[in-house]
């Protein structure tokens, strides 16, 4: 199974990718999480990416392509993957085509998460994540049992720096300008499957399973 999860920030790509990757025994390759790890570790990549991420802009294509090229060459990605947050520009999509061709692999489908903008704003500004296992909660619609503590692993919950309302609006704008053109790009290649990503987490997962199965 080789899938891309495409959609605006707050569409639920990470939540679904985490669960379905585990179910299918393939890695979830989440570029935002990889960058946040690099920031935390203070690596040169983290120092370069940190400031850009805080502003809500995109990290340069060549940096992202280098990162994903290295990740896709790891043995665990040979049997499949879910790309979560990559590609985000046409240039990244073109680079991914070349990379997969070199690896003798092909995409099965691109799953588009369709969510209305007011719902994205609501989800992102109330989002809290576990520092340890990255599980997502929501202050109102999916609160943890104990405030500030992850139900799954007991880790501390935090709000991402880029989930403030002003930065969220900027990220949605960046998405509309730089990432949304990928919908036509993949539709034109017969790879796009659209899923209404509002409703319960299990019902959206079921719709993604159907889309992925039909694509194979
Ligand atoms: P995410 O966790 O997917 O919302 O990503 C958080 C931030 O990381 C984004 O707002 C970007 O600054 C950066 N980022 C993640 N993936 C990419 C990518 N494929 N291209 C450029 N920047 C990215």
Care to describe what's here?
This protein is an alpha/beta fold and 216 residues long. The protein has one domain: Rossmann fold (3-Layer(aba) Sandwich). Helices cover 50% and strands 15% of the residues. It is built from nine helices and eight strands. The protein has a five-stranded parallel sheet with strand order 2-3-1-4-8, sandwiched between helices. A three-stranded antiparallel sheet has the order 6-5-7. Strand 5 and strand 6 form a beta hairpin. Bound molecules: adenosine monophosphate. Adenosine monophosphate binds next to helix 2 and helix 3.
Question: What would a concise description of this structure say?
Answer:
With 216 residues, the chain is of the alpha/beta class. It has helices spanning 13-24, 31-41, 44-55, 61-72, 90-103, 117-125, 165-179, 181-188, 201-215; strands at 2-6, 28-30, 81-84, 109-114, 127-130, 136-138, 157-158, 192-196.
What about the largest sheet?
5 strands, parallel
Number of strands: 8
* Radius of gyration over C-alpha positions, nearest whole angstrom: 17 Å
Strand content: 5-15%
User: How do the SSEs run, as a string of H and E?
Assistant: EHEHHHEHEHEEEHHEH
Helix content: 40-55%
The strands making up the biggest β-sheet line up spatially as 2-3-1-4-8
Low-confidence stretches: none
The first-level CATH class name: Alpha Beta
Which homologous superfamily in CATH is the superfamily? P-loop containing nucleotide triphosphate hydrolases
The CATH architecture term is: 3-Layer(aba) Sandwich
Shape: globular
**Which fold name corresponds to the CATH topology?**
Rossmann fold
Q: How much is the average pLDDT?
A: 95
Query: Which ligands, by name, code or SMILES, are bound?
Result: adenosine monophosphate
């Amino acid at each position: 199974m080789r899938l891309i999860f495409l959609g605006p920030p707050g569409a639920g790509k990470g939540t679904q990718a985490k669960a379905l990757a585990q179910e299918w025994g393939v890695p979830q390759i989440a570029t935002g999480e990889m960058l946040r790890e690099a920031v935390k570790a203070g690596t040169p990549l983290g120092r370069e990416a940190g400031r850009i991420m805080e502003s809500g802009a995109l990290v340069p294509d060549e940096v992202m392509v280098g990162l994903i090229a290295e990740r896709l060459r790891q043995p665990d990605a040979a049997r499949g993957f879910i790309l979560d947050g990559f590609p985000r520009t046409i240039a990244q999509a073109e680079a991914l085509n070349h990379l997969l061709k070199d690896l003798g692999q092909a995409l099965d489908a691109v799953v588009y998460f369709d969510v209305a903008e007011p719902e994205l704003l609501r989800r992102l500004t109330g989002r809290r994540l576990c520092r340890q296992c990255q599980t997502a909660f929501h202050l109102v619609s999916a609160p943890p049992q104990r405030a500030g503590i992850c139900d799954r692993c007991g880790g501390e919950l935090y709000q991402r720096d880029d989930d403030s309302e002003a930065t969220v609006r900027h990220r949605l704008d960046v998405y509309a300008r730089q990432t949304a053109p990928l919908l036509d790009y993949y539709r034109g290649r017969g790879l796009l499957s659209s899923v209404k990503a509002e409703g319960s987490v299990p019902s959206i997962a079921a719709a993604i399973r159907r889309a992925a199965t039909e694509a194979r």
